[in-house]
Each structure stands twice: as structure tokens, then as C-alpha cells.
Amino acid sequence: MPIIEVNHLTKEYQLGHISSLKDTALNTLRRMAFQPTQKREQFKALDDVNFHINEGEVVGIIGHNGAGKSTLLKHLANISNPTKGEVIVKGSVAPLIEVGAGVNPELTGRENIFLNGAILGIPKKIIKSKLDEIIEFSELEQFIDTPVKRYSSGMTVKLGFSIATSMEADILIVDEVLAVGDLAFQRKCFDRMEDLIKRRGKTVLIVSHNIRQIQRLCSRTIMLSHGQIVADGQPDTVCNQFYKQSNNKIFNTTNKQTQHTEIKTSGEVELESIEILDINNQITSEIKSQDPLNIRLTLKFNSPLKKPEIVIGTHTTDFVYLTACSTAIYDERPDFTAGLHTVHCIIPSYPIAPGIYCIRLSIFDQNRRDIYSGETLKHFTVSPKSNEMKEAGLRTLDLPSNWVINNKIIK
To answer: What is the 3-state secondary structure (H, E, C) of the chain?
Structure first.
């Protein structure tokens, strides 16, 4: 039996500038004369969205910016009214939609706990029994009787998260707040979410741009694009589809030479070119997983430099650092005279899962002074070594393996 039903949900907004006094007056006269008024363009944030969620499901909602994720959650939390269609929610909802949502800045932290509990229809006696637990989890004991308007944004979200996840609501709605606070508090948030999901069996909806969080926490994933559902199914399958779309977008952007690259330099060294070479030393943009990765740099030194350290690394498009190779391991690394120099960094085997990756570069002098640093300097594609590796599941590394089953080597 579904606990949430979304049927033909559509939400439209008007685009354009605020009407001038003249336009407003003319539109009023047209309405009085039963003439058509000047209408602004309509934007569909949600366009005929349909899905059901069963009790106990943990559903991740992903998509690009502007896809309609937060708009959808606001309808599920009854914060916004649809233009068309309906949303049926059978049970109490604890929404944690955005920073400070549901928290009154004029009230103290303690008063906000009672306010939020009352909004959820929870008896005061039960709220009192959970009060110490909420305050302890939020780590705000020292400030709990201070007005929330004096809290930092991080403290406000800590309080909101603690309230929402401690109350006995049937449905928890979370929008981009799992990375709040320091690393220790983030760990507590994940532990609390896993407790709600695995031990208490709560129905949870999570919106996040951190796709790895969605893959880890959710049992089902819905992907939105331009206000419509384009995928709904197992997290690995849907998230891989999202990665593929994002990587294609990045690749197309790079081809149009509009990709922004962050570079910091002292001016002593300039990067003239960066190239990927295949096994035949030909320039390429694609290698196979587990094949060598040969990176060739052309550097222009504007002044001589003694024994600089050069670091070449690779990272994912969402800045997970994968490798870093440094010349610091060599005692007799060369000096560089002023002028052009060619540098090769060759990784004998690059066992990374198929996808699109980036190159970064750092150069230091003998005293570890930062002379040059840049990320996302070049994109390259890693394709699967064989067709079978496409179906190997969620992973970052594509490591070769040998199998022995019942003392028999599998070939």
C-alpha cells in the first residue's frame, strides 16, 4: 500500500520581469473590456510527474540543477500547492528541506524543538521525553537557550536535522543537508540516517548532489530532468545513467572550449600543452582501463629553476583524487633552464573504472614553494578493457583478478 502517491503533478511559474505600472494598468483595462491580457511565459518546474512510494522505502531523487528536485519535495511536504495534479501523503511528515526551514529565528533552540514537535502533532509529553536526546545529538547544549537568529547556518541545520530525525514522523524528507557541520557531525548524520533506514524502517526521501550518498543509503532512485522523470529504479543503474549524462555534458563542454579551469601560478612556469599518448605514442583522448597512461607536458620556464618537484595527478569530474605521481622520489631530479621543456609521466597500468577523468598539475621549488597548481587541465576517457567489465558493478578501480573455485582455476 503506497504511503505517498504523486499523480500527474505539474507546477508552473511565470517567467519574466515584474510588470511596469503601465503594463499593469493596461492589463486591468483589457480585463475590464473582456479582452485578452498580456501574459508572461510559463515555466514548468514539474511536468506531469507520476510515481508511488511504499512504506519503508528509501528513495533518492537526483538530477541536474533546476531539474525540479526541491520543488517536488516542497509539494510532498505540503509547502507548495500544485498547478495541476495531486499529491497524497498518508502519514506525518518531518521535512528538512533547506537551511533553517521550519526553525523560527526569534525563538530559542529549546523553544523551536517544542514548536516543531507541535507542528508534527506530537504530544508535549513525548517531546519532553526526547528533549535531552535532541539537544545532545545537535551538540548545542551551550546555546540551546539562545535565540536561533544568533546561530550560524551550520548550527541552525544541526538543530533542524536533530529535530527532524528524532521526532516519530512516518516520513522523513531530506534535501541537501547530510554534509552539515564538521566531519565528526557528518558521520553522526550518516549513522542516524542508517539507523532510521535499517533498524526503524522509516520512509525516507533524500535529495542530494552527492551521488555516492544516494547509492549507499537508498533502495530506489528517481532521476529528474527538466521537471520530468527520466529514470526510476535500482540506485546503481540510475546513478550510473546520471554519471554518464554528466560526463557527456562535461565532454561536450570541453570540446567547445568553455570548461573553466582553476590555475594558480607565480609566473615562473607556464603550461604550454598537455597531451595523452596511446600505446603507439599517438595523441589520444581515450585509453582502455588497465592500459598505460602516458601524460606529456610541454612546460615553459621563464627563469632557471633548480631541482623543482613536479606532481601530476588524476581526479574524477567531481574532484575525487585518484593518483598523484611526484618527481620528489628521485634524489637526482634535473635542473631546468629557461625555455621549453618536455615532461612525460607514464603510469604502466591505469586500472580505473570506465568514465571521464581529469588531469591536475603542481610544481614546487626546492623549498616546497608553490610555483604552479591547476586542476581539470585536461579531460580523458577510460573505456572498458572488455565488454564483460561494463557489467562488473559499482567500483572505482578495475583491478585484474584470478579465480579458483573448488580448487579449479576459472578461465
So the answer is: CEEEEEEEEEEEEECCCCCCHHHHHHHHHHHHCCCCCCCCCEEEEEEEEEEEEECCCEEEEECCCCCCHHHHHHHHCCCCCCCEEEEEECCCEEEECCCCCCCCCCCEHHHHHHHHHHHCCCCHHHHHHHHHHHHHHHCCHHHCCCEHHHCCHHHHHHHHHHHHHHCCCCEEEEECCCCCCCHHHHHHHHHHHHHHHHHCCCEEEEECCCHHHHHHHCCEEEEEECCEEEEEECHHHHHHHHHHHHHHHHHHHHHCCCCCCCEEECCCEEEEEEEEECCCCCEECEEECCCCEEEEEEEEECCCECCCEEEEEEEECCCCEEEEEEHHHCCCCCCECCEEEEEEEEECCCCECCEEEEEEEEEECCCCCEEEEEEEEEEEEEECCCHHHHHCCCCCECCCCCEEECCEEEC
**228 burial type by CB count under 10 A (0-12 exposed, 13-18 middle, 19+ buried):** middle
pLDDT(284) > 90:
yes
* pLDDT tens digits along 3-50: 999 999 999 887 655 556 667 777 777 777 777 766 666 778 899 999
AA letter at 265: T
Residues 1 and 314: their CA atoms lie apart, in Å, by 48
CA 266 to chain CA mean position, Å: 32
CATH of 263-391, one of 2.170.30.10, 2.70.50.60, 3.30.420.240, 2.40.50.140: 2.70.50.60
In sequence order, the 6+-apart residues with CB closer than 8 A to the CB of 385 are 288, 289, 290, 291, 398
pLDDT of residue 178: 61
Question: What superfamily in CATH does domain 56-81+90-250 come from?
Answer: P-loop containing nucleotide triphosphate hydrolases (3.40.50.300)
- Is the pTM higher than 0.90? The answer reads no
Contact between 20 and 56 under an 8 Å Cβ cutoff? The reply is: no
